[in-house]
Amino acid sequence: MKKQKPRAPKTTARSLPRGLAMLQDPRLNKGMAFTERERDKFGLRGLMPPSLLTQKQQAERVLENFRRLPSDLEKFINLAALHDRNEALFFRVLSEHPDEMTPIVYTPTVGLACQKFGHIYQRPRGMFVSIRDRGRIAKVLRNWPHRKAGIIVVTDGERILGLGDLGANGMGIPVGKLALYTACAGVHPDLCLPVTLDVGTENEMLRADPYYVGIRQKRVRGKAYDDFIEEFITAARRVFPGVVIQFEDFANTNAFRLLRRYRNRICTFNDDIQGTAGVALAGIYSALRITGGKLADQKLLFFGAGEAATGICDLVVSAMVSQGLTEADARRRCWLVDTQGLVVKSRTKLAEHKLPYAHDHPFVPDFLSAIQTLKPTAIIGVAAVGGTFTRKVLETMARINERPIVFALSNPTSKAECTAEEAYRWTGGRAIFACGSPFDPVTIDGKTYVPRQGNNSYVFPGVGLGAIASGARHITDEMFSSAAHALARQVTEADLAQGSIYPALTRIREVSAHIATAVAEVAYKRKLASARKPLDVLGHVTSQMYDPHYRDFA
Questions:
Q1: Domain chopping of the chain, boundaries
Q2: In angstroms, rounded to a whole number, what is the distance separating the alpha carbons of residues 149 and 11?
Q3: Model confidence over 185-215: pLDDT tens digits?
Q4: Contact 471, 242 (CB under 8 A)
Q5: Which helix (DSSP H) or strand (DSSP E) does residue 67 occupy?
Q6: DSSP track, 482-516
Q7: Of the CATH numbers 1.10.287.130, 1.10.10.410, 3.50.80.10, 1.20.1370.30, which one belongs to the domain with range 13-102?
């Protein structure tokens, strides 16, 4: 039996509310853009000023007020309030100004918003499912006002960005991610369900905070935790058949384990592991267009050995194997440095996910020594420890390589391994740089470099859209590899000339459509799609994309 592809529910004029109820529904509200005919038809006369403002004019007013606000947190609150009252206007502003808006609705500002979540909380968005809901999770999920969901982004809040355990305050992450699914890839907002699984928190300051939104207890672990996750997965698939489930910001202790358990059972992925890998691999492909090297000849050294590092390693190894290396040789091209030093075979008590990259090599105690010993072509920072790419580190990379590849991917900005200014200045402008948080262009000796974020928002929205459009039963590493190739192909020669190894965010919807097409093509090729392959896959994908312009209700 074919799996029904989720679509946003259709709204007919007869089913629409009238009067104040219409103005208070963010999915329907057009503010002062309601036409004269609509004002008569839906009983809106007198409930708003008599003049008419187009959506374009409203967007300009939003931007005028937004740009006057003195802090990023106030801008975050301002956009959240807009989301709550006028959905189409919110997504039009996001999709037309992604460079300006993405750092507010997602990294880096969302990190601060999660830390302050209970203090800035205004209206509910998404679903909080707590450990106290065991035995009735399906019933809880049925309280969601939409009958269908295409994608769930779920977190348990234990590892929010580089900020640690924020418990239920981590809801800002799935809300922000799903806002980007819509703004960047046109996944209809009615198909997007943010979920926070509240199993407690080890953060004593949060438990003592009178405005903390979650349950005030230490985290549930072990069998009780696993049974809770299993009930949630089972319930979500029952209530929302065919839904894609994205795991987000789970701690290492659970992230790898849960991905292994569910990836071949349901349509799921972990963005911290696989999405980060896809973005990083795309950046490496783009960097090699500048250096002229081959992927199989690169040696990658990671500062960090968690979900992001090993996820990137796994995808890079897969790509190298496809180019002719053996798996063992490919793994020898990837090295990890954790808090204890270089990950090598002689070390004891290594976590399971590090073992494939624990090589037979003398132990080296620190990152700089590892660079001097291994002579990598690329360093990739994913440990969320700010300032670790020191001047000495960058100068050493520049001495070893004509064009050193430097990816400082940790976020928020306070956790960045180095700034763009430092990367370019301390390598004499020779670094091929990508960052996890936004940095302004840098001018050195008359040349301007434009750094771009190696942000997961380039990949995960397109992957989700491709999975939904094809009705994929599983999301595979091959899909992320194809997504990386598709993203790299969207980087122009003009981008590379200014040091940008990712395309401009202003093109993100176009880029996401191509990534979604690449993902869907893999689903069709590997017989993982429940829908029949259309003659024009790109056309089919783009036809699924939500348009954030006002509808005519009259």
A1: 13-102, 107-270
A2: 16
A3: 999 999 999 999 999 999 999 999 999 999 9
A4: yes
A5: helix 55-68
A6: HHHHHHHHT--HHHHHTT--S--GGGHHHHHHHHH
A7: 1.20.1370.30
Q: What is the pTM of this model?
A: 0.93
Spatial contact of 237 and 266, defined as CB atoms under 8 Å apart: yes
Q: Are 420 and 402 in contact (CB under 8 A)?
A: no
Q: Any idea which residues carry the catalytic annotation?
A: 106, 177
Q: Per residue in 467-522, pLDDT tens? A: 999 999 999 999 999 999 999 999 999 999 999 999 999 999 999 999 999 999 99
- Give the C-alpha separation, 262 to 273, whole Å: 14
Cα torsion 49, 54, 56, 62 to 10°: value is: 10
291 confidence band (pLDDT: 50, 70, 90): very high
CATH number of 107-270: 3.40.50.10380
Q: Among 374, 382, 419, which residue's Cα sits nearest to residue 401?
A: 374
Q: How many residues does the chain have?
A: 554
Q: Positive or negative, the Cα torsion across 202, 208, 210, 215? A: positive
Return phi, psi of residue 152, to 5°.
-110, 130
What does the block give as tokens for 320?
Answer: 């190298």
Q: Which two tokens stand for residue 99?
A: 């460079």
Instruction: Map tokens 């899909």 to a residue.
Output: 479
